[in-house]
Specification:
alpha+beta
Length: about 100
Amino acid sequence: MLLHHVLFWVKPETTTEQKAAFKKGLESLTGVETAKALYVGTPVLSINRPVVDTTYTFSLVIAFDDLAGHDVYQTHPVHKAFLDSFRQFFEKVVIYDAE
């Protein structure tokens, strides 16, 4: 199994409506057939510990069976459509892949 974890920081001027659309865009990634599980979340602001980063806007975690499934996702039309529609809203992205 391969876990693909992406943290997004959206630009400060992003509106509430744009953030809602961004979240729906992330959820649309379930349309990639190699994604076995997908979770979209936001920081838990009530957790106040020095080791917890709550500065990001959205967290995306996708589980794939293997690297081949991940590679399909990277070039999949649904993923490309998400990037084309929403990359204008994020100022920073950090990705962690783990197996």
